[in-house]
Amino acid sequence: MATIRASCSDCGDVELTTADVKVRVCTADNQGTYSFRCPICRMTVVKPAEPRTVDLLVASGVAYSTWSPPLELAEPRGWGRPFTHDDLLDFHELLSDERRLSEAVASLTDR
Q: What is the span of the domain harbouring residue 32?
């Protein structure tokens, strides 16, 4: 098992094994990070990783995973006006009025 040297912002340089480090790469933009739990302070440390660093860590046996941003980030924006505090109060009032709530639910099922 390879020894990996990394740096904790609180404790400074630490030595880790490949089992202590994880690499994650975003599928949308190929940005990578590596993370580890500092063996001294036990805090999780996450640092950006250039593609070369990702390749070196994976080649040495570090666990590799990918992640994808939520699809909601790709949805178009700008439809309608922003939700306001008054809208929230109106919604709260609607929820407390059984008749209006039943009518609102019924109008959704009529479509």
A: 3-70
